[in-house]
Here is the input.
Amino acid sequence: METSFQQIITAPPPDFPVLVSIALLFLPLLSFVVLYFFGYKLPRKGDIYSASFIGLAFLTAGWLFFRVYTSTNFYYSFTWFSIDAISDPILFTMSIMLDRVSVLMLVIVTFISLLVHLYSIEYMEGKRNYLRYFPYLALFTFSMLGIVLSNNLLVTFMFWELVGFSSYLLIGFWFEKDSAGKAAKKAFLYNRVGDWGFISGLLILWMQYGTLELSLIEVLQTEAPSGFWLSLAGLGILGGVMGKSAQFPLMAWLPDAMEGPTPVSALIHAATMVAAGIYLLFKVFFLLTPPVLNLIVLIGALTALLGAISALMQYDIKKVLAFSTVSQLGYMVMAVGTGAYDAALFHLLTHAFFKACLFLTAGAVIHEMHHIKKHLFVDRHFYDFSTLDMRMMGALKSKMPVTFASYCIAALSLIGIPLFSGFLSKDAILIHALNWSANQPSTVAYLVPLSALFTVFLTAFYMARQIFLVFFGEFRLGQQFPPAKHTFDKYAKDPGNLMKIPMLILAALSLFPFFSVNPFSISDAWFLKSFSATTVHSSGLVHYLVPIFSVMLALTGIYASWLLFKRKNVFATENSMLFSISANNLYQDLLVKNYIERPVMRIAGNLNNLDQKVIDRALHTIIRLQLYFADILSAIDRKIVDNIVHAIAIAQVIIAHIAAFTDTYIVDGFIRLLTYCSAKAANIARSWQTGGIQRYILYLSAVVLLFLFIVII
Amino acid sequence: MRQKLLKENPDPVLIYYLILAAVLFCCGLIVVLIKKNAVMVLMGIELMLNAVNLNFIAFSQYDSTLMQGQFFTLFILVIAASEAAVGLAIILNIYSHFNSSDIRDANTLQG
Here is the structure.
């Protein structure tokens, strides 16, 4: 207790930027509280307020960025509470770390959140539950900022769970739809599986170091490294990352999470929530032992490849992007595993912009398809089709030029074409993966960069396929249902400014000048330079070969896609085995159902039987015995204890009667006698005072005579 | 008793005055005690005063030079006259208050 007081007293007051960051953290929470409880009273249900809160948060984050990025880090920790143990009090601390990466993350999160808010104002207009949408967004932003700021793993874990919860709310936003509710549940459960690993890792760390304060662990770890437990803790935290960042084998929730509103997907599943895992890996990088790092590389590479394969043959416009996100997250995780956490964060940064842009533009397309559906309905043409289905789209290029341009820029950035941001970050990852494999003892390690390069090809293929399907060719809905063609010609257009401007901003941020002056070389990227010891060392030949090779692969992918697209409708009619493997996400859901869900259910059923037949019976016997004992005890109670109690009660009543008698006749009687006597005396004295003057004179005379008589005689 | 008085008082005449005064005083006292009418009571008081006067005069023969007893008697006569006037006024008020001059009706001072 004393030590904690001492710490509180002697702890220096937080620096001004730390206070600002705390204020920044609570701005979205304030927005959530205001909108959730008073939103229905505000004009336009408070969406403007929410957007301005986030806008303020973004400005604050921008200030913090310029304050911290060029100068020192700020660190502040304080005691949250302490538990008195026998020897030492156990301290639970909270801490805030403002370093270059965290302020950059603050800017990304608040910026994308702001754009998504603005975009949503138009996109969600008139949708059901509009009132609840913005508070949820604000809550999510709050949780995400908490993860970014916290330097204590326990607090990080709390915000981690909050992120999971608020994403659950957002994915299940249209909960009237059965599939949305299921998707939200699935996302939550997959995350829980990962969190189980995370919290196990935290417990091991606590056991080893007695604190979850990252800066403390970093110091302690250099003094006493303990290989086995550290690896185990790293594995546990990796589990959490696998859940949150949708890594194999916990990747199946992300495509389903596309049931949420599209702006939500842009915020959560492109820029922030899934990036939280990468950020956490970066934070705990010093804890990861070589075996864990190798596992991370394996998982990352596998996820990148599997995500890309699954994205190949999807028809749902958002699911392509979702699998693409899975694949790109795999890249980042792989990069962390190879030690290039700076490259991973760089890709996280570029990916946040171009993937959010892709989701927002996809949202614009979906929005337009909704409009067409609505106009068809108004014109009394009833045709039910999915507005997400790319088989119904096509030829949107001329109708939605702005959307098309943004989409192309972001997609080219994702594919990794020079002049775009994605090229720089992906290049860094690939080069480092190659360097890493060159340093490994086994030649098998070369499979990792090879699969990464192959993923580049696949990425180019599926993104080109999506662009061709959505923006080129014929308007296929019009072919299937002729009246739609007329509606399409008449109504299809770019969305309004509130949706267009965020798209354009993000598209602009997918270009190279924001990240590097030289579009062909990663060595000029300011972000990578900001790390004191950059991990990307590119030896001459590799430095030129890898980018050239990857660009060639990407172009080949686009060309292959173009060739297949030219064969009419090849994407729409493909029905081979390879196709169905990709379209069904490698049958992961089926595998989970057959090999996890069914055995679990069978075990649960058997356990239920065991429970009913053995445990319940034993419990019943115990209960019966208890009842029997209770009967005996009850009899003892009635026959013996009760009689004693009765006797005592009767004795007490008798004593009470005696006392009452004494009181009434002796004590009271004496008092009454006294009063009687004094009353009598008073009456006698009174009777002498008759008021008759003559009698008084008589008494006077008699007394005088008596006096004289006594004196004389 | 008479022998005893004579033995103690050398002047034999004085004793008769004193006896007369005592009888007069007792008459006045009896009148005061037994008469119902307030006026009669007042008259009884006058009798008692006169008895006292008689005593004063009787004793004044032993004071040959100053005649204090006779002067005192004159004072008492004047005071008795004024007292009778005040007494009659009181009686008149009592009558108007109680509608009676009976002294026994004026008994509101009783305890």
Remarks:
- Strands of chain A lie at 74-83, 90-98.
